[in-house]
């Protein structure tokens, strides 16, 4: 399998964590969405960010990916400070993401939506594209071959490649969105609630794809997720947010037993119930 999702052989990855978040603070008027948030994402890991609704998880994702500019703090990617880089430049460096609310072009086909993910890496100019000259034609052929032979086959969506996104069930739309993110050739894949709204079978399929992206493609995964069974089964490291602050982080087993995490989810409620949920016996419902 081609290894275009990882760094070229001539460009050895920087030592240390692939992604480092240092003391991020984000405010909207007088409301602090993030306050001094800091953690590291190890290369080749699956790191999950969890917390009750309103904890700041999506604000954190938007800050890391460049949609929001923090008031304080820094974001380092592959050892480089990217705090002031706009989102498209971060994407070109290898930081790709999906969205909590599906952000596909519903009137376009699955294949065309996925191809858009590679747009930031294309080298054809406007003149080439307008007249579909040599370079544009070659890039289009290479792009389609790569997507069809690798990404579509990997995510098992060959049967819907020419279908309009609007005609697809929700679970398949989530899979198409992941395919578009993989077309961006990421070093870090950021997944915002990848199994939200899915049934058990769809969740199991997505869990398998996430593991294979890490194990077979060598892509580091950072995800926000409410399904605690998925988080505890897949993650190497868990970061817990509450009211915009990190209240715990570490291995899944340590996090699920942390008293601060239990209080954040249930207050003075049933500790046994939370532990059952963290083991995957039930989902943690949005607060």
The CATH architecture of the largest domain comes to 3-Layer(aba) Sandwich
**What portion of the residues fall into strands of 2 or more residues?**
15-25%
Mean pLDDT: 83
Q: Spell out the helices and strands N to C.
A: EEEHEEHEHHHHEHEHEEHHH
Write the layout of secondary structure elements.
Elements: E1 19-28, E2 31-41, E3 46-50, H1 57-65, E4 72-77, E5 80-81, H2 87-93, E6 95-97, H3 110-116, H4 126-131, H5 134-154, H6 170-182, E7 188-192, H7 200-217, E8 220-224, H8 228-234, E9 237-242, E10 245-250, H9 252-256, H10 259-266, H11 271-278
Parallel strand pairs: 3-8, 3-9, 6-7, 7-8
Antiparallel strand pairs: 1-2, 1-4, 4-5, 9-10
Helix pairs in contact: 3-6
Structure write-up:
Helices cover 38% and strands 21% of the residues. The chain has 287 residues and is of the alpha/beta class. It has 2 domains: 15-94 and 186-287, 3-Layer(aba) Sandwich (Rossmann fold); 105-185, no CATH class. Strands 6-7-8-3-9-10 form a 6-stranded mixed sheet, with helices on both faces. A 4-stranded antiparallel sheet has the order 2-1-4-5, covered by helices on one side. Strand 1 and strand 2 form a beta hairpin. Helix 3 (110-116) runs parallel beside helix 6. The chain starts with 18 loop residues before the first strand and ends in a 9-residue tail after the last helix.
């Amino acid at each position: 399998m081609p290894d275009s999702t990882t760094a070229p052989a001539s460009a050895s990855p920087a030592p240390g964590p692939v992604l480092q978040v240092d003391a991020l603070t984000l405010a909207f008027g007088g409301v602090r969405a993030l306050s001094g948030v800091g953690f590291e994402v190890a290369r080749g890991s699956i790191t999950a960010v969890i917390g009750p609704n309103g904890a700041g998880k999506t604000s954190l994702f938007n800050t890391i990916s460049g949609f929001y500019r923090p008031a304080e703090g820094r974001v380092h990617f592959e050892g480089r400070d990217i705090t002031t880089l706009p989102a498209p430049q971060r994407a070109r460096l290898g930081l790709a993401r999906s969205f909590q609310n599906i952000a596909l072009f519903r009137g376009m086909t699955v294949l065309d939506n996925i191809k858009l993910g590679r747009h930031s890496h294309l080298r054809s100019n406007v003149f080439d594209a307008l007249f579909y000259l040599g370079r544009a034609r070659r890039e289009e052929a290479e792009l389609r071959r790569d997507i069809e032979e690798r990404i579509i086959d990997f995510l098992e969506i060959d049967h819907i490649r020419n279908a309009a996104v609007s005609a697809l069930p929700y679970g398949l739309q989530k899979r198409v969105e992941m395919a578009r993110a993989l077309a961006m050739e990421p070093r870090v894949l950021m997944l915002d609630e990848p199994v939200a709204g899915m049934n058990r079978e769809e969740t199991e399929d997505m869990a398998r794809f996430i593991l294979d992206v890490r194990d077979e493609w060598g892509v580091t995964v950072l995800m926000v997720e409410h399904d605690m069974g998925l988080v505890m089964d897949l993650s190497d490291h868990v970061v817990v947010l509450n009211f915009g602050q990190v209240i715990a982080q570490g291995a899944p087993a340590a996090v699920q037993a942390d008293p601060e995490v239990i209080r954040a989810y249930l207050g003075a409620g049933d500790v046994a119930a939370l532990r059952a949920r963290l083991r995957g016996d039930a989902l943690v419902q949005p607060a």
